[in-house]
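Fold this sequence, please.
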Amino acid sequence: MSLPAPHPIYTLRGAGGALNTLHFRCHGEDPHLLFSGSGKGSIHIWNLNSRRAEKVVEAHSGSSVTWVSTLQSTDTLISQGRDMQVCLWDLNEGRSELLESVWTGSVGFCQCSLLETSPTNYLLAFAAQQTEEIKIIELPSKNPVCTLTPKAKVGMVMCIKLWKTNSGLGPLLLAGYEDGSLLLWDVTQRAKLSQVRAHPEPVMCLTFDPRRLRGISGSSEKKLSSWTLDSQNNIQLQDDVTLVNPGVSQLCIREDGRILASAGWDDRVRIFSWKTLRPLAVLQYHTDMVLSVAFSDHQDPRQRLLAAGSKDQRISLWSIYNDGAGKG
């Protein structure tokens, strides 16, 4: 017999807009928090113990919030909006004060990428005013690091991912572009290392596993494209995953490297084994397209959660494959 379809353990309502982005902070002491950014310009800080919004930050002058994250070392929230601003907020002692803002000039939907380089310093990558450009700055100083501009015509930058290698090289950045290309950049050398055409349509989302040097990307088509990096930092296309329905908003790999979640335009979240890409489950709850997925960073694996945010203005929380069933 097949297993019954899973159900969310609970849901969060009241965001007041489409849920474009989600971010957990559960690695420290209570309270465990989930941050959400909405299409109405508000950031909700949800207390996962009380299952209520602890605070609402009205950000970006009512423009859609496209990305949220936090600095691990301080009580600082980072948000990105369609008002072409990246904002840093002080949440210490219950505050929600604007500390700094960075003007990006970008009118697209490309989400920022954040990389911790030391306990007190970070790199922030974002799409720039010129649609094919990516700018990288240091935080909290806001000092510019570099601008990455492809020589070939690949169109608008759609999605980016900063990561650090174990080989001693400086930070690298993966980027997906409008023409379906993936480019790998060396941030220190400001140089393109490799390029492939992974999709016939724009790359809508990508995620990467630095431990396995393996990534996966999605677009508006009925396919996920997986790929690896070889010893020369060349992107090598691997297996494709055929989907039932077209369109993927976001992809997320759980920290233990066992399962992959996809946010579908067909209102569903799909779970795959990250090792084999075998389909494991279809999560059906939402009544409109799923825009965001995120795994929690609980230190206890048994507490790990998956959150999904939808255009239907609801967040669903799921506890799945926490007993090793997703080793795949």
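The first strand starts at residue 10 and ends at 13. The mean pLDDT is 93.
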